[in-house]
Inverse folding.
């Protein structure tokens, strides 16, 4: 979840490798609602809230074994 004070939060998936040793967390955002449009106006260095991750991981070992 990405959170922007005074606007709210939106569920946005991470689009980078969470194991990246640089610690960069990237998101791909389509600017369509109030929160995402406000995010589109942020500049480098502006603050945004992040909470999560939520959900259940994909069972990769099980999927790979079935292939």
């Amino acid at each position: 979840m990405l959170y922007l004070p005074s606007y709210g939060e939106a569920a946005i998936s991470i689009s980078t490798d969470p194991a990246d040793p640089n610690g960069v967390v990237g998101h791909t955002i389509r600017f369509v609602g109030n929160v995402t449009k406000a995010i589109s106006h942020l500049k480098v260095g502006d603050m945004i809230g992040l909470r999560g991750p939520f959900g259940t991981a994909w069972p990769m070992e099980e999927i790979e074994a079935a292939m």
The beta strands are 2-4, 8-10, 49-50. The longest strand covers residues 2-4.
